[in-house]
Fold:
Amino acid sequence: HPRCHLHEARWRGADDGCLQTGAAERRGHHQDREWRVEIEPQRHQRRRLAEGGLRSLRKTFQGENRNAALANSHSIGTTHALIYIMISPIQEYLNQLHSRFASVMDGHVADYIPELAKADPHLFGICIATRDGHVYEVGDTRQPFTIQSMSKALVYGLALEDRGEEHVLSRIGVEPSGEAFNAISLKAGTGTPFNPMINAGAIATSGQVLKKDGRSRIDRVLEYLSGFAGRELQINNTVFESESQTGHRNRAIGWLLRTFGILDEDPDESLETYFKQCSVEVTCRDLALMAATL
Structure:
């Protein structure tokens, strides 16, 4: 195959063979490439390899580069095996995209929250997670950052689970607003936000999440988001404080929602929930897994 790279390695036995593969996996924590490695013994060595426990050795691992993987497969003994290393075409395409666009520095980092303005604009990663469990990634995909407005769709799902579609639609519409995400804008007459993706709709959505079993709204939101990511997520309190201290427009929106009865109580807790959900820290890889789970 044109994308297969054939390398002959010598294996002393099962323990040494596994040890070498393990070393390759440990060195290969960076996510630039994905390889499928198969041990195919030469015919005259099949019995010996079977006795050594290598006949079922099949590993999938990620490495910093092709040479790093091959460096861990040098001749180390007397038993021969052939190692086929295949680079996924998806991974190759992501690598090409990353190389093509990594130097692009158009635009500027978000600064509507002061703490966000400190983000490094050179960080760039791409990650794809498939429904059947494959993950392809390149670049700075493990760099944490706050989820911000990407939390809106997921929290809307939690509100639907808690309250049901009929109730949620009575409080939050599903129409395009045609205005900026942070516009102070509600439907005439009803006071409902146009949709859950603008700030007014997102704050209303946070207010529809129920407090259950002694857990606050934000506790349940954090648990819900963590379930999609497959790991325990945390709130970046520095970003939360920055957002809370400068969120005057969002507070105005909150009180308008209370005036129209969209929120059933004073908006302080709903606003704090919203600020904190936006401050949940994720990585590019987390978001890919969350989207695949959703």
Notes: The chain has a mean pLDDT of 80. The longest helix spans residues 14-27.
